[in-house]
Every structure is written in structure tokens, then in C-alpha cells.
Write a structure and sequence with these properties.
Layout lengths: L1 H6 L6 H8 L3 H7 L3 H24 L6 H18 L2 H7 L3 H27 L9 H17 L2 H4 L2 H16 L2 H4 L5
């Protein structure tokens, strides 16, 4: 996944991957029938690693929703730092991967809403909002950034930082806003 993100998907050849893994290209093709299947597995693994890291981080007794959000923000900023804009552009050409991302979106939305509801209970997020709408607006905005290739005009970190800070400040209570530093 690191190679795909850093160099763009198209420029990473199966030979490059086999060499990096120190296996033969034939062995690689026995495991993954093509580059798209390998990319799909990489995307799944990458999302799983992110989710597992956040769950592990959240398991600490002194950790609350604010800490988790800040950790998520730091992780995304670090990840976006190394992503070549070609990655986003080329990703759209892999229909199995795009289908997976769209199919798993509802699950991610549900997890986000549940997380926010816990933050509401703890006083970090406003009670008055319908977070089903908020999360869907955030999802639609991310899709807009990709569909309109805004990552070619603006740095992906800059897009993420500007969007999420404004969004968070919109639904966070003053309790949370006093604690966040970016």
C-alpha cells in the first residue's frame, strides 16, 4: 500500500511488488490474480489497520472521544503527507476497489454516528444536531473533493485539515473547542 500511495498505482508494477516482498512474480500472481485484487486487499488491510489502531488507542482508560479524534486527525495528516495525487486519480479506474469503498461506506457512517453519539453523551458534541445528516454531508464532501479532483489543485493534507477543522468546530461544544489545538 505504501508503494501505491507514494508512487501512484499505475507506476507500481507487479515486478516491483514481488521484488519488495522478495518473492517471485509467479508466486505473487498465484496469490493475487491481478493488480486490482492486490490493490483491493491492500485497501482492506489499510482500513483495517487504521480501525484497529484507533480501537487499541481508545481502549486506554484515560482516552475519550476528544483524544480519539485528535489521534485520527494525526493519523490522517501523516498518511496524506505521503500520498501522491496520482493515487486518488488512478484509484477511480479500479472498479472492484471503488465498489468495496462504496459498499463499506454505510458501515463507516454507522460507526461514525455511534462514535459521535458517545461524544454527545460525554458533552463534547452538540445534542441538537442530526448526526446522520452531518456524517452524510461529510461523506458527500469527501466524494466531491475526489470527483472534482480537488487534490490536483490543493494538497490533500490542506483539503483534509480545512474541511475537518471547520466541520468539527461546527458540532463540537465549547468543552471540546477549548481542548483542541491544531
Amino acid at each position: 500500500m505504501t508503494m501505491f500511495k507514494k508512487n501512484g498505482i499505475k507506476s507500481v508494477k507487479m515486478d516491483d511488488i514481488a521484488n519488495a516482498l522478495q518473492i517471485s512474480k509467479r508466486t505473487l500472481y498465484e496469490i493475487y490474480e491481478n493488480k486490482e485484487r492486490l490493490l483491493l486487499e491492500c485497501v482492506r488491510e489499510d482500513r483495517s489497520n487504521t480501525r484497529n489502531h484507533l480501537m487499541e488507542f481508545a481502549s486506554h482508560d484515560c482516552c475519550d472521544e476528544m483524544d480519539i479524534l485528535i489521534e485520527f486527525f494525526k493519523m490522517k495528516m501523516s498518511d496524506l503527507e505521503m500520498i501522491n495525487p496520482k493515487f486518488f486519480l488512478e484509484l477511480q479506474k479500479y472498479s472492484e476497489v471503488v465498489d468495496y469503498l462504496y459498499q463499506s461506506r454505510d458501515e463507516e457512517i454507522l460507526r461514525s454516528i455511534q462514535f459521535i453519539e458517545r461524544g454527545v453523551e460525554h458533552g463534547y458534541f452538540l445534542k441538537e444536531l442530526n448526526y446522520s445528516i452531518v456524517v452524510r454531508i461529510a461523506d458527500a464532501s469527501m466524494n466531491y473533493f475526489i470527483a472534482n479532483e480537488m487534490y490536483l489543485k490543493y494538497d490533500a493534507k490542506e483539503l483534509f485539515r480545512n474541511f475537518w477543522i471547520v466541520l468539527l468546530r461546527g458540532f463540537c461544544t465549547s468543552n471540546f473547542q477549548r481542548s483542541i489545538t491544531v
